[in-house]
Amino acid sequence: MHVALINIAHARFDLTDPRIAEFVDNLDRVNAAAERSPGFVWRLIGEDGDDATSINAFGDPRIIINMAVWESVSALEDFTYKTIHKRFFARRSEWFQPLDGPNMTLWWIEVGEVPTIEEGKRRLEILKQNGPSPEAFLFGNEFDPPHKVAAKLTV
Questions:
Q1: Where are the beta strands (DSSP E) in the chain?
Q2: Cα(113)–Cα(58) distance, integer angstroms
Q3: What string of DSSP letters covers 96-129?
Q4: CA 61, CA 63: separation in Å to the nearest integer?
Q5: Which domain, by its residues, includes 58?
Q6: Which end of the chain has the lower number of beta carbons within 10 A, N or C?
Q7: DSSP 68
Q8: pLDDT value at position 48?
Q9: Is the Cβ–Cβ distance between 141 and 147 less than 8 Å?
């Protein structure tokens, strides 16, 4: 099993605004770091570029979406908190405003599966409605992949 991620953010400014330029100007750098990281599998990319900022999945162009697949939660955590990504993550409140509901969730997928935006949106709603569960969870509230749960039950 691999772990899928959806992360959304509501930009305080249009992505062409100089007040968010430092974030926008470093997207390629952070995405390249992700792709070089151990455990990286896939990330969502829009049709017109190297990132997903052009995808308007929520009816508001200032809500940006990121989706990715990693081999494990620990590989994703390492990228999130131990690479250049952490510098931008630490400054997220400068560029993004709070959302009404969760802005990120993780869930297990089969190796080779590519999650859809609709699936990611559904998983965010599951987390919002139910809190962390095997269907939608967070760092620190992980659930074992389904095959590990089944193996534990048969022992």
A1: 2-11, 40-43, 63-70, 96-97, 104-109
A2: 23
A3: EEPPSS-SEEEEEE-TT----HHHHHHHHHHHHH
A4: 5
A5: 2-154
A6: C
A7: E
A8: 78
A9: no
Give which of 2, 36, 10, 25 is closest to 102, Cα–Cα: 10
Q: What is the pLDDT of residue 151?
A: 47
Expressed in angstroms, the distance from the first to the final Cα of the chain is 20
Q: How many Å apart are CA 66 and CA 94, to the nearest integer?
A: 18
User: Residue 32 is part of a domain; what is its CATH number?
Assistant: 3.30.70.100
- As given in the structure block, the two tokens for residue 11 are 């930009």
Query: Would you give per-residue pLDDT tens digits along the chain (155 residues)?
Result: 999 999 999 999 999 999 999 999 999 999 999 999 999 999 999 987 788 999 999 999 999 999 999 999 999 999 999 999 999 999 999 999 999 999 999 999 999 999 999 999 999 999 999 999 999 999 999 898 987 555 454 44
State how far Cα 108 lies from the chain centre.
Answer: 13
Domain total in the chain: 1
